[in-house]
Amino acid sequence: MAVSTLARPIAARPSTWFVWAGMTAFAVFLLGIIIAVVVDSFGRQWFDTWLPEGLTTDRYVEAWDRFSLGEVVGVTVGVAALVVVISVLVGVPAAYVLARRDFPGKRAVMLLFLLPVLMPPITYGIPLATVMYSFGLGRTLTAVVLVNLVPSVPFVILTMTPFIEQINPAIESAARMCGARTRQVFTRVLAPLLVPGILAAAILVLVRTVGLFELTFLVSGPGSDTLVVAIYRGMTSAGGGEARQLISAMSVIYTATMLVMLVVALRFVNPTQLVAQVKETRDD
């Protein structure tokens, strides 16, 4: 019986082969684009040949100096860090209230928080930019941080609310029975349990902020551009007359930055372990 089972030919459904073919084609195209951009960033001249005439790192040095990428990267990291910190400080307490309290209009509030996450950023970005320029905040770091908080705070709230709901409320009741105040319950009892969820939400907000183009572009300017906006301005400056290799070098720097963040997220935040830890906490 075992021999006949092993000898049986392996056949897959046509739909399975179609899915694998589509995934393979997508992977090949994506890998081809990435390789082309990376090779172009190191190339001296590349027109009608399979490979550039020579390889050099001068394009990275030139792009770093011409577009002040040191300052741009610093602005990007600073804006992302501020948005993450403020989003967590505002979003986690708000998520706790939504998870533990029932009040009239709760569903409407949840829907209100859901809108900036679901709607295209440009739909509310233009009115936001108008308000920022009306108050004299246009082209400033303050405006960049504020507009990025609009989708980030609701994102943290929507991420943390179900996480908090899965934590057994009996833990908080036991702490209060032992004499702990509300602040002590939140900082000493709940905070350690919320660390995995906070870390996951913070990393996702970080990646989202670094890659958010529309809102940042509408209110940023010299000295407040993030890396993704600087790439767009480099592409369109001088009527698109900048050397293609410079833009490719900037794109590689941006892609490497996002890749590092993704690796960190997958290294320290495992969704399976996150859910398992919450369930264990609720069972206890």
Automatic annotation (TrEMBL):
<keyword id="KW-1003">Cell membrane</keyword>
<feature type="transmembrane region" description="Helical">
    <location>
        <begin position="17"/>
        <end position="39"/>
    </location>
</feature>
<feature type="domain" description="ABC transmembrane type-1">
    <location>
        <begin position="73"/>
        <end position="265"/>
    </location>
</feature>
<feature type="transmembrane region" description="Helical">
    <location>
        <begin position="111"/>
        <end position="135"/>
    </location>
</feature>
<keyword id="KW-1133">Transmembrane helix</keyword>
<dbReference type="InterPro" id="IPR000515">
    <property type="entry name" value="MetI-like"/>
</dbReference>
<feature type="transmembrane region" description="Helical">
    <location>
        <begin position="141"/>
        <end position="164"/>
    </location>
</feature>
<keyword id="KW-0997">Cell inner membrane</keyword>
<protein>
    <submittedName>
        <fullName>ABC transporter permease</fullName>
    </submittedName>
</protein>
<feature type="transmembrane region" description="Helical">
    <location>
        <begin position="246"/>
        <end position="269"/>
    </location>
</feature>
<dbReference type="InterPro" id="IPR035906">
    <property type="entry name" value="MetI-like_sf"/>
</dbReference>
<feature type="transmembrane region" description="Helical">
    <location>
        <begin position="185"/>
        <end position="206"/>
    </location>
</feature>
<comment type="similarity">
    <text>Belongs to the binding-protein-dependent transport system permease family.</text>
</comment>
<dbReference type="Pfam" id="PF00528">
    <property type="entry name" value="BPD_transp_1"/>
</dbReference>
<feature type="transmembrane region" description="Helical">
    <location>
        <begin position="72"/>
        <end position="99"/>
    </location>
</feature>
<keyword id="KW-0813">Transport</keyword>
<keyword id="KW-0812">Transmembrane</keyword>
<keyword id="KW-0472">Membrane</keyword>
